[in-house]
Amino acid sequence: MEKKDIFDTEISVYNGVRDVYGTTCKLRAFLFDKKHVSEIEQLRLLATKEERNEIKKKLPQACISGIFSPTRKSDNLVRHSGLLCVDIDRQDNLHIDNWDKVKQELSKLPQIAYISLSVSGNGYFVIIPLRYPDYHKGQFEQLKRDFARCGLVIDHACGDITRMRCLSYDVEPYINTDAIPYGGYYVEPRPMVNYHYTNNNDTLDKVARCCEQIETNHIDITGDYQSWFTVGCALASLGENGRPFFHICSKQNQEYRYNECEKKFNNLLRTIKNIGIGSFFEICKDYGITPFKDDS
What we know:
This is VirE protein. Pfam families: BT4734-like_N (PF08800), PriCT_2 (PF08707). Residues 55-174 form the BT4734-like N-terminal domain. Residues 218-283 form the Primase C-terminal domain. Helices cover 34% and strands 14% of the residues. By secondary structure, the protein is an alpha+beta fold. The protein folds into two domains: 6-175, no CATH class; 202-286, no CATH class. The strands form three sheets. Strands 2-1-3-9 form a four-stranded antiparallel sheet. Strands 6-8-7-10 form a four-stranded antiparallel sheet, with no helix packed on it. The longest helix is centred in the last third of the chain and has 16 residues, at 202-217. The model has no long low-confidence stretch (mean pLDDT 90).
């Protein structure tokens, strides 16, 4: 099977930042467009960011990570391009003395397909193919950490799948049609739970024993939203002590998302007062989960 050239990938492009609907074109057509070179050169001569932004807003823009329709919103993603574009700005990396060698050093990384001067000429933008584009945010988060280990700070806003890239120009861009898809993926650290309390709190000990069984046997007691909500309410009655247990129960479900779970528990701590921990034990009982060490 013939290998696809990633520069033939279709992306959404826009006629300036005020273009709402945009159109599509191949990545190579956008990156190698020379019709606006004089405007970009003029922009790079301007003294202030405000002046540069006035020209920048009128230049063609692109969403490197995919095609959006009818408008540029994450909910309107039609197809991910399999690519991620990150910015490495000079102002964020003032600790680097040999800035002129940054492109040369980046070009040694086999996962990088393209490197170019940014439109201002004060930084670089880098295009990287992704191995797991359906997990765009997780891949970006790990990429951010990998760059940091190399001493480079990338713009955190680049994790936004809808982020627009302004047309730029580089006399000698780095091009690698054989770039290897980046496989890094960041997973939120698992909440640490002490299953054996030493504060003589009998209720917490019982909850801990139930959650130990839930995690060990991968029992999902939050199969629908109402169950998840009730479990959360019951555990929120324990205050912050209930938070790690809510994560344990929630993550047995394939829809578990760490940040969503955190947000829900924060909300329950503030608003729910009429559901106690007894409801948690009742739900556990339905699944054959008991807080007692010997239920015979």
